[in-house]
Amino acid sequence: MMNDYTFSFTLTSPNVTFLNSLSDLAFAIYPAEAKDIPGWGVETVIGTGPFML
């Protein structure tokens, strides 16, 4: 992690599925406290920016 808002990945070789993997909920980056929220990811959404669904 570079700072509170930036992280980086260093791959050891090219990976054509890497970007697709980032969009999978199983690999999502979310706040640590989110795991304690009932219904997180189903009924409760935690965003990463000023976006509205």
Task: Write structural notes for this entry.
- The protein is mostly loops.
- Helices cover 9% and strands 0% of the residues.
- It contains one helix and no strands.
- The chain has one helix at residues 18-22.
- The longest helix has 5 residues, at 18-22.
- It is extended.
- It starts with 17 loop residues before the first helix and ends in a 31-residue tail after the last helix.
Quick structural gist:
It is built from one helix and no strands. It is largely without helices or strands and 53 residues long.
Please write out the topology.
Layout: H1 18-22
Descriptive keywords:
little secondary structure; about 55 residues; about 10% helix
Q: What is the C-alpha radius of gyration, as a whole number of Å?
A: 14 Å
The percent of residues in helical segments reads under 10%
Mass-distribution shape: extended
How big a fraction of the residues is strand? under 5%
